[in-house]
Design brief:
It contains 14 helices and 19 strands. The protein is an alpha/beta fold. The strands form 6 sheets. The chain has a 7-stranded mixed β-sheet with strand order 6-14-13-12-11-7-8, with helices on both faces.
Length: 488
């Protein structure tokens, strides 16, 4: 089969001759021809391609043939498709695979990485703008006048009622609206629970008085041996001593807990190593908290994003009086929305409200009302399901690319969340991270997350965030990553 097509210059500003030939039928031939036109530079980045109907008529093929070819090239990163702007050639720094093997050059320093594979970053281009705007409009129209006065430190009742229903349904949390306090995210929750600047309270662990500096809880605090250094620094600034717990593929060794007054865990998906807390350890940490009069802080990190099975229910469901459940929308929607929540045992509600102050000074009331509507109307569930499919596809592409290009690199942890851990040969982590930087790839080494007093039990590795790049940029980011790892 050999056919050709000449584009309308006056329609898209470029003449292009495509040869449709080779095995696999017309869709495969069209896909190859367009891919080669982009790869060879005959279709420049940003070029708008004809609509399905026009190209199908020119070629004498079905519209579905063109639509399928476009969709395949969008998925590979060659093209982009956005409602209202048509299908265009992706703005990529370079082709996914070079036709000629030429020496790689250091990326131009333009103020940011060429490929962003850092952890903890959702795909910003996927924010549901239209649905969020609709919820915002409805929320503002329905809001009572008092909503625009001084805010309740507990948060808007509308949001707390909606969250109580959603968390019970989706995460197995057992609570009621009066035991939920709205905050601006996980870090803000830690500041309220441990901060030195909070007013004095009588809500320390086990009902004892708070620490001398003010906070609701006091240390020492058990933490996982690998976690965010930012959180450790925040706790250290509040005078809280953290005690690292060893980790393995089943989560934290909670049997190592002793005289700590509280423990902070990521039981749904340990950050960053990727294992869930196994059932017997979940039960054991609750038994420890009951015996010690202690409390468990549950960071519900990635709780909604598990791909190989249904998400594991929240640890809080085992004992609502011994677990503080903390969540936010920073991964599911956007970190730009400074909205989170604490689900508290009854004895901690008033101390946390006292720590927060008489008025809401952190979380925007209109945003709270919009989120309440967004969840109540089902838009949040739909968005999470859509992103779960997208991120699962991203992870699958990462695994497949490594199997082909760097089979000696192992992907560890469960299929969940917005990142994956790649095991590296011993002693190579630093050089691989440096090589990635030279190629314009931003990512993190596993050692950066280790507690300074904890064991280096996780070995050498990379923490690769596969959620951050937009769809059209992900293929190029994977290609650059594989080129770095192939030499590791």
């Amino acid at each position: 089969m050999t056919e050709s097509w000449v584009n309308y210059a006056e329609r898209i500003g470029v003449d292009l001759h495509l040869e449709l030939s080779g095995p696999g039928g017309r869709r495969a031939a069209l896909t190859r021809a367009l891919r080669e036109a982009v790869r060879g530079g005959r279709l420049a980045p940003g070029t708008r391609l004809p609509p399905y109907r026009s190209l199908a008529a020119d070629l004498g093929v079905a519209r579905n043939t063109v639509a399928d070819a476009y969709a395949e090239l969008v998925a590979e990163g060659w093209l982009t498709a956005r409602q209202g702007s048509g299908t265009r050639v992706a703005e990529r720094a370079r082709p996914l695979r070079r036709a000629v093997d030429v020496p790689a050059q250091a990326p131009a320093r333009t103020g940011g990485p060429r490929h962003d594979l850092r952890q903890g970053r959702p795909d910003a281009s996927a924010f549901p703008r239209a649905a969020w705007a609709a919820s915002y409009r409805r929320a503002l129209q329905a809001a009572p006048s008092e909503a625009f006065g001084p805010g309740d430190p507990a948060g808007r009742r509308e949001l707390r009622e909606t969250l109580a229903e959603y968390l019970a349904r989706a995460r197995g949390v057992r609570t009621e609206p009066d035991r939920i306090v709205i905050c601006s995210g996980f870090a803000h929750a830690l500041r309220l629970l441990f901060g030195r600047d909070a007013p004095g309270s009588t809500g320390g662990a086990g009902g004892a008085g708070g620490p001398a500096g003010g906070g609701v809880l006091r240390g020492p605090l058990g933490v996982e041996a690998y976690g965010l250094g930012f959180h450790r620094d925040l706790l250290a600034a509040a005078g809280v001593r953290t005690v690292p717990l060893p980790l393995d593929e089943h989560g934290a060794w909670v049997a190592a807990l002793g005289r700590e007054r509280a423990v902070l865990l990521t039981p749904a998906h340990q950050f960053p190593t990727g294992g869930p807390l196994r059932p017997e350890r979940r039960a054991a940490v609750i038994d420890w908290a009951r015996a010690r009069g202690a409390v468990v802080l549950e960071d519900d990190y990635d709780g909604e994003f598990r791909y190989d099975r249904r998400p594991v229910g929240a640890l809080q469901g085992l004992d609502p009086e011994r677990v503080i459940h903390i969540g936010s929308v920073s991964k599911s929607l956007s970190p730009a929305l400074r909205l989170g929540w604490m689900v508290l045992p009854e004895r901690y509600v008033e101390p946390v409200l006292a720590a927060k102050g008489e008025r809401e000074g952190w979380a925007s009331v209109p945003d709270q009302l919009a989120l309440a509507d967004f969840v109540a109307c089902g838009s949040y569930d739909r968005h999470v399901r859509r992103m779960r499919q997208r991120y699962r596809g991203r992870r699958d592409r990462l695994v497949a690319a490594l199997a082909e290009r760097a089979p000696h690199i192992e992907v560890t942890g469960i299929a969940a969340g917005l990142h994956a851990v790649l095991r590296l040969p011993p002693g190579t982590e630093r050089t691989v991270v440096e090589a990635a930087v030279r190629r314009g790839v931003a990512l993190d080494g596993l050692a950066a997350f280790r507690h300074p007093d904890g064991p280096a039990s996780a070995g050498d590795g990379l923490v690769v965030g596969y959620a951050a790049p937009a769809d059209h940029a992900y293929g190029a980011a994977l290609e650059a990553l594989c080129e770095v790892l192939a030499a590791a």
